[in-house]
Amino acid sequence: MVPWLRRLLAVALVLAVAGSVMAATRNLRPRPALLEGALQEVLAPLSGVTARMARGAGEIGRTLATLGRLEAENQTLREELERLRGVEAQVRQLERENRQLEELLGLKQARPDAVLAARVSGRTPDRWYQEIILDQGSADGVRPDMVAVVPGGVVGRVVSVTPHSARVLLITDPESGIGALIGRSGEAGVAYGRGGDLPELVMTLFAASADVKVGDDVVTSGLGPVFPPGLPIGTVTSVGRDPTGLGIQVTVEPSAPLNRLAAVLLLEPARQGEAP
Q1: How far is Cα 178 from Cα 273, in angstroms, rounded to an integer?
Q2: What b/e sequence results for 215-248 when a residue is b if at least 16 CB atoms lie within 10 Å of its CB, and e otherwise?
Q3: Exposed end of the chain (fewer CB within 10 Å): N or C?
Q4: CA–CA separation, 154 vs 146, rounded Å?
Q5: Largest Cα–Cα separation, the chain
Q6: How high is the mean pLDDT in each 10-residue block of the chain (276 residues)?
Q7: What is the C-alpha to C-alpha distance for residues 252 and 211, in angstroms, rounded to an integer?
């Protein structure tokens, strides 16, 4: 309650008590004293005012208390909403990972060269399209040169292993070269990652007059020691000349969802695995 209102109520209370005492002892005196009469004249109109002011002050206090309680409840509801949003995001993440694991299980049953599935446990923003870290290592049977795939296509190959983790070089890294074929025409070449922030490969075709066009599918040729044949790599998005101007070079958009990998299936390298 504000100080001026508190003081006013105190004065009114004193006057009211004095008036009450005088009223209670009025019958003991033959007639009201001069001061008593003056107080009665003053208090008569003020008694109603002070009563209304007291009721108003009480209403203000109750309103302020209600506002404080509502503000606290509102803050609690906001915190609960933020918590539920976090839970919802975690549930969606788990649902996405479960869908990918179910798809990997189906792919594993279809490929005799499949070894095991592993979750993606690490990734750095500055090498987003260059490498991923898996939560399985040599203690689980992971070895260098194993091929990482998802139902959409090839992801990369294992380049280093610890007992409980493995590093996979993605096909979009410039150091990752893959023997590749144009699916429609069978034209052969080598595909390399372009690097940088773009999930894109560049494929140089061996034949200067190769039959290739935008929209063609690109698959692994199986001509190298690592990648088995027939794995989807991506789709041709542009066709042009290589830097020498003598050969044909195309850009390829990866078919695997490299931006949202949650888990991969590891295959035996081509020289050790069995072709599907």
Answers
A1: 17
A2: ebbbbbbbebebbbeebbbbbbeebeebeeeebb
A3: N
A4: 11
A5: 133
A6: 70 69 66 66 65 80 89 91 88 81 83 91 87 95 96 95 96 94 95 88 92 96 92 96 86 94 92 52
A7: 15
